[in-house]
From TrEMBL:
This is GntR family transcriptional regulator. Pfam families: GntR. The keyword Nucleotide-binding does not apply. It comes from the Bacteria. The keyword Transcription regulation applies. Keywords: DNA-binding, Transcription, Transcription regulation. Residues 7-75 form the HTH gntR-type domain. CDD domains: WHTH_GntR. InterPro entries: Tscrpt_reg_HTH_GntR, WH-like_DNA-bd_sf, WH_DNA-bd_sf. Gene3D superfamilies: 1.10.287.100, Winged helix-like DNA-binding domain superfamily/Winged helix DNA-binding domain (1.10.10.10).
Length: 127
């Protein structure tokens, strides 16, 4: 995994975990890789993974079953979407709005490109 120097590694690992949940690679009630397994896989310190897991526990995305490991909660997908939506609206969207304003990109062009993106990336099976 390539890490971005502008963002804390534990937050990038949280995004990685959340991506797996949203893409359904890891499903509700699945056991997650252990702290050590994920640390080895991502080539990071186990304490960094533990910090990620602690944060995800606080957001009720994962739960620790003592002695067994970390598991996705029954509400993991809903909680991931809520968490990621908050991050997007507070961090990503203001920069996006700034760029479309400075570059004078109109809403019709954005809508057209959004529709193309969805069609190309998510409607492939509907054709």
């Amino acid at each position: 995994m390539e890490f971005n120097a502008n963002k804390a590694i534990y937050l990038q690992i949280a995004e990685y975990v959340c991506d797996h949940i949203l893409m359904e690679t890891w499903k509700t009630n699945d056991k997650l890789p252990s702290v050590r397994e994920l640390a080895v896989q991502l080539e990071v310190n186990p304490n960094t993974v533990m910090r990620t897991y602690d944060m995800l526990q606080q957001k009720e995305i994962i739960a620790n079953k003592r002695g067994i490991g970390f598991f996705l909660t029954g509400d993991s997908v809903r909680n991931v979407k809520s968490y990621r939506k908050t991050v997007f609206l507070e961090e990503d969207l203001p920069l996006f709005f700034r760029n479309i304003y400075l570059l004078e990109i109109g809403l019709p062009e954005l809508e057209q490109r959004y529709r193309q993106f969805v069609e190309q990336n998510f409607n492939q099976n509907e054709s």
